[in-house]
Every structure is written in C-alpha cells, then in structure tokens.
Amino acid sequence: MTPQVRYTGVNHLAMVTGDMEATIRFWRDLLGMRLVVGLGRPGYRHYFFEISEHDMIAFFEWEGAEPIPEKDHGAPVKGPVAFDHVSFGLAGEDDLWALKDRLDAADVWVSEVVDHGFIHSIYAFDPNGIAVEFSAPVPSVDVRRYPVMADDHPSPAAMEGNGPQPGHWPGPGEPTPEEDRRAYPGDGQQIVGIITDSHTPV
Questions:
Q1: What angle do CA 113, 56, 63 make, to 5 degrees?
Q2: In a domain, 92, yes or no
Q3: 106: closest CA among 49, 35, 26, 34?
Q4: Is the dihedral of CA 162, 168, 169, 171 positive or negative?
Q5: Is 51 left (phi over 0), alpha (psi -120 to 50) or beta?
Q6: Are 23 and 30 in contact (CB under 8 A)?
Q7: Local mean pLDDT, 10-residue blocks, the chain (202 residues)
Q8: How does strand 119-125 pair with strand 114-115?
Q9: Nearest Cα residue to 57 out of 92, 33, 81
Q10: Under DSSP, is residue 153 helix (H, G, I), strand (E, B) or coil?
Q11: Structural domain range at position 29
Q12: Residue 181: inside a domain, yes or no?
C-alpha cells in the first residue's frame, strides 16, 4: 500500500521583485511578517518571510524585473495565465480589521471587507503589483470539516468525492531505498553553518 503523503502547508510561495527594499518594507514592516532567510550574491537575492509556523513567502530579486500591471482579483483573463492572487489566512475578524486599519493608515489601497460566506476578506496589492487577499474564517461555516459543492455544473472529477480517488495515476513501485536517498547541494547551504555556529531560535 502506498504511504499517505502528509502536507503541513505551503512551505513557500516564490515571487519576483525588482526592488527588495520596497518588498521588505511592505511584507516585514507593514504586514508584520518576519524576514527569516536572506540569500544573495551579485545580481541575485532570495529572501523569505514567515507567514506562520509552517508557511513562508519568498522573493527573488532580479535586476530589470518590473512590477506587473495590477489586475483586479478574480477578474477573468484570456491567453497564457497561471496565477491570479494569493490569500493569507488571519486568525479572526479582529485581525482583519486591524490589518485594514494598518493598510489605510499607510495609504495603501485596500478594499472594503467582503463577506464570502465562509470567509471575510480584504484585498490589496503589494509594491510588485501582486494581488493579495487577507481572509478571516467564519467560525460557523467550516468548509474543511463540512466540504460543500455549490457549483451548478460541477466538474465530473469533482463529483467523485472530496478525497483522493484511486485508479487515476499509476502507483509507485518499491520505495526508494534509504541508501539511495540523497539531496544535492542548492542555494542556502551557507545558512546551515551560520545557524549552527552563531544563532539560537528567535
């Protein structure tokens, strides 16, 4: 039997900026997300901001990268497209209004609070033109505990059920033996020594 894969959240979303200073000011100083990793060399930076215990958002800084044109959240487009917006979960309604007040005070455009039934949301844009949403749960409407299909014409695959459906993909053979499991060096190797030698968790 194939072992179940356990997910903990979004390790990180990888975005792009041409202005890391403005990006740090927005994500760390305005939104309050800690800067937890900074990698770099001439012509390249890769910085990570902590969203929650399990989730981060990261930015590559590439010379010549420019902000994308702002597009209303959820507005349909045609042609090649892969990303619309990202929504960050908030603990509750008080957090939603506190963040809205913070964005208003900083003169950053932010929408009114929108009631989506199972979440209340506000919408904004970061300095790179990335469409962001901030969502607080409606405690009485728990779609994780009680999934809902409200589509009048649902996808046939969706009608098969909420959980993974067997038989649509080939299963793996034997698991990779322990002696064959190896990870190859990538960017960030230098942080291991820094953390080990000079840092305690903060």
A1: 100
A2: yes
A3: 26
A4: positive
A5: alpha
A6: no
A7: 82 96 97 96 94 97 94 93 95 97 98 97 98 97 93 93 90 90 86 70 58
A8: antiparallel
A9: 33
A10: coil
A11: 12-156+186-198
A12: no
